[in-house]
From TrEMBL, chain A:
Highest classification ranks of the organism: Eukaryota, Fungi, Fungi incertae sedis, Mucoromycota, Glomeromycotina
PROSITE patterns, per database record: BTB
Name listed for the protein in its UniProt record: 1127_t:CDS:1
One GO cellular component, as annotated: cytoplasm
InterPro entries, per database record: ABTB1, Ankyrin_rpt-contain_sf, BTB/POZ_dom, SKP1/BTB/POZ_sf
BTB domain residues: 116-196, 292-359
Keywords (A to Z) from UniProt: ANK repeat, Repeat
From TrEMBL, chain B:
Ranges for domain Cullin family profile: 403-637
Subcellular location, principal: nucleus
Full protein name: 14180_t:CDS:1
Gene Ontology terms for molecular function: ubiquitin protein ligase binding
Family matches, as PROSITE patterns: CULLIN_2
Nucleus recorded as keyword: yes
Organism superkingdom: Eukaryota
Location of the protein in the cell: Nucleus
GO BP terms: apoptotic process; mitotic cell cycle; proteasome-mediated ubiquitin-dependent protein catabolic process; protein polyubiquitination; regulation of gene expression; regulation of primary metabolic process; response to stress; signal transduction
Annotated signal sequence range: none
SMART domains: CULLIN, Cullin_Nedd8
Amino acid sequence: MKLADEDKIFQDLLNACRNGDLELVESLVRNFGAPINQTDKWQCSPLYLAFVKFLLENGAQCRKDTFEGQRCYYGALTMKIRGLLSSYKYTKADDKYQPYRNFFSYILERPLDTFSDVIFKLNAPYDRSKRYNTLETLEISAHRCILNARSTFFASKFQTIWCTSKVIEIQEIQIHATCFRAMLRYLYTGEIASIPNSLMDNMIQLCKYVWLDNLSERYTNKMKRINQDQDKIEFKKLQNDFVKFFKNVLLVGKQFYTEQDYNNNMKVDGSEIIENRIGHNDTEPKFAESQHDICIRVEDEFFNCHKVFLTERCEYFKAMFNGPFSEKLLRTPRISECSSKVFALILEFIYTDKCDIPESMACEVLIKADMYLLDKLKSIASIILTNLSEPLEDIYVLMRTAIDLNIGRLEQWCCHWFADHLYEVLEDQRFLDLICESAHSIKKRQETDTIPFIDDLRYWLSKKYSVLEDEIDQRSGKVREYDGEEITDWEAEYNLCLRYYYL
Amino acid sequence: MSSRRSQNSADLQFNDNWERLAQAIREIHKKNASILSFEELYRNAYNMVLHKNGDKLYNGVRGVITQHLEEVAQAQVVPAFPLSGASSSQTNPNGAGGANFLKVLKNVWEDHTTCMLMIRDILMYMDRVYAKTANVPLVYDLGLELFRDTIVRSQKHPIQNHLLDVLLQQIKLERENEIIDRSSVKASMDMLLELTDASTKDTVYATDFEGRFLETSSEYYRVEGQMLVGECDAPEYMKKVEKRLIEEEQRVRHYLSPSTEPKIRSIVEEELISKHLKTVIEMENSGLIPMLRNEKMDDLGRMYKLFGRVLKGHEEMKSAISVHIRELGKAINETVSSNISSESSGGSGDKQTGASVAIKWVQEVLDLKDKFDKVQNLALSNDKAFQTSFNEAFEHFINKNSKSPEFISLFIDDNLKKGLKGKTEEEVDSVLDKTITLFRFIGEKDVFERYYKQHLAKRLLLGRSVSDDAERGMIGKLKVECGYQFTTKLEGMFNDMRISADTMADFKDFLDKSVLEKPKMDLGVTVLTSTFWPMNLSASPRCNFPAEITKACETFQRFYLGRHSGRRLTWQSNMGTADIRGSFKSRKHDLNVSTYQMVILLMFNDLPEGESLSYEQIKGESDIPESDLKRNLQSLACARYKILVKEPKGKDINHGDVFYFNNEFTAPYQRIKIPTVASKVETEGERKETREKVEEARKHQTEAAIVRIMKDRKTMEHNNLIAEVTKQLQPRFVPIPALIKKRIEALIEREYLERAPDR
């Protein structure tokens, strides 16, 4: 399913490149992370086909040492393109995950500002250069949820002996702080921090201790240590870890709201009691399997969440939990006017930076993503919507949403649809209302009087019919005349609308 | 119809929602945010914006905040006004009321910003969606604007006036060394900095405060500047100014905007430095010149640093110092010229003092130079511009003294002759190095060259030079300064000396081997290339040698010409020395004398005891030129060792004087050196002669330069030619255009050049 999906995007990208549809290419690359460095079964890379400069600027690679790179290079149509190809280095690649990456580095670097919930105490090992500080202990803060998701070692420890500890002292082995930090960096970001050679043994010992064979291998094998492809794989793995964590732990762990809970914990007027209400039956209430520190109630479900993810990935939650408002102290804040299914999707996006939105829910997710200021989720949802051939919902509702939320892509898609179904909607009052509204949006008189909506319609119409034109080989005349008729029709209607409006 | 009904219900919905939101904002203002549900408020605001009520929401928020701020202004700010009203400074000298006012304002500001942050959180969606499309400020900025208009620039209350007055008063208090609460001043400044003026897009700080601050500051410092100039002497004044500058800089750092720093600095500089530049420099007993005189390096350094901050500051300093140098130089020149004139009136007896005057002059100039180098080093941080102006001043007064080339050459001569006596080689070297710096100032380097050549020739021939290395070192230095051309002749002189030594060795061998009768005495000959040496060939001095000597000379001549055919030897009898043995009554002495003196003394050999020779007799027999004869007789008869006795006694030699051999002569040493007349300051006549020679040489050089240039260019404009010639001759002397013009004419006359036909 997943694979097919990516495949489809890639096919779209190739087709768009072939057809010279820069707009589509742009949106595919910008919003949906279309894999611009992939090749199809004929080993055509998108670069081979099209907008050299745009793709290059967005991180497409053309390396002479690969077959398709060579092909791009020799297939370049002009010297200008060839020059472009060789002048671009592939430094800007992988932009699409940047915010997600940044999130992990940020919380790694500033655990205290981001709701860290565990402190590791290290006994600094005997250091010959500083003779008298063997007793010095170092405290390193971290987030349980990250470690839990990324490491089976920590997950199992957190379930068992460390399940209640706020401060954890590791005494079994001597760990150098630099090594521990390097390990944290790997767990948080998948990056391999450089370690002085003198600490390499300690590092490998630590890796073994925390069951990170992969990491220890990368530290022992120099070739693998500095390797971009390897880094990419690591990052994919990190993302997958969170996908698993989210699906297997968080979604499974959500609880349902019962009448009893209501009676126990709700005061009059729906305001909740400020107290821990999730594990009130457990003996060790504080850290459940999910290591959550907040529990969000949506409709009648409770989602176990982590403030660190919510606040740093979403402005809305940041304001909610960092501000001085009542939610700051609540353990089970409530989100209204949102279905739990949609909320689960939003959480999926927050935790994993991707989201499989069922087509039927795309519109709803779109609206909520807008409300919670999640731009990337918004564009994911809008791409899903616009990849449909027929609207699943009422086209007018979609159009309305597109206009309200200012989603150009969806708006264009709707226009496209209208153009394709012009005869069906021509008489519809709602369609006329749209034209009227669009006309009303013009504040000043422009040099040429146009209505944006009409313009867009005309554009799609001309696209549609120019293809036919070629096929039937009937130049000018009829089509243009046809266009003209339509336009006069609209104008008549538009004038009517205006007149009606001014009355 | 249906839409209108839904419109109504939507309105109701809006009003309901808005009422709750407004209530929430009021709660926030009451600091009760913790009872509010963010989720609900955000959703509320979100729905309003989504339903196209963004403008209503926005304006509503504006209203609520404005109302709140007005209440705050009335309830908190106005009661805190300093008692005395706008002109608070007189009645409230310690500014306590002002400080309190600032504190209140600080609290109000802090409360407001905190509340605005919360309100911003709630209205995040409005900021993102509505504010952007409607092109209105974000809600936080709106809050700032409202604060600006309702509090800081309130129309109802004179808050602004009070605020600015209090701030300025606080600053004034601090300037007068009182302790103020900087943190609350800073808070107010930060507030003003954060608020922007709508029309200028600049901060309120810049529009409202900065101008007035600068105005009052400049007034303050104008008064202070006038007062200080009257009260303090220059060093103290500068210390105060320096302190003020540091204070203002710190003030800016502590609580003003960094952008104010250059402005306030330039005000202090203008009021305290620029306006009083001359006054401070010319302050009697403490100004620039007294500082120089007393070598107050710290004060000078401070003055340099402070004055460097303003335009013209260094200019003024430079010109003052350079005038000072010129005056000092002039004084040195005057003492020297008065010394010379007094000496010349005192008679030609002590010619040594002539040289000592020169040495004294150079030494004084060097001391002066040292002093200003030190000033330059310690106080002026080696400023190039100052260096140039100093150099110009030195050049000026050194060239004012027309004898300076001669003096400098004499000074070098003196050092190279005395040399190691009492001074190490390094010391001599450093002295010579300094002398070279003086040499640089000389405009007429060719004159110097001429004197140097003369002095060098005497040193070489009379064997006076202490160290060959030192001599060569000096020539090396001159070479660095003026190039190869300048020193070829000097080097040629050294070469001649070396070759002559070889020649003499060969001559000895020749004599040993030859069958000819050997001369009765040893003959040492130095063969000089006439072009290198400063002797006048055409007028080779006449002198009749005794027969034996003539014979010896002839022997050498035969030997030499046999080796080098086609050469002509001319005997320079005025340059030689001779060792003779004189038998006196008590004992015999070896006398080292000049050739002339030898000739004179040999005449007395044939004279019976007690006989005398008259001046005329000696002159007639020896045919020695008169001035030389007089000098040599003088050193034989009137100086320390009186080999001859003169009748009548006296210091000067006159016609008709009679000389006896002094048989009674005694001296403690076996070997006596009769001092020849050493290098000395030239007499007026000699100087004139030298001058003429130099002029002659210059003519040739000028013509050579003209021809060189014209060969290259073929045709050239007159003025350009003059400029080019001047440029080429610059390193040797500064030609006057008239000279060049004359030379050009001469060349045209001799048909080396011609006028271009079309002019």
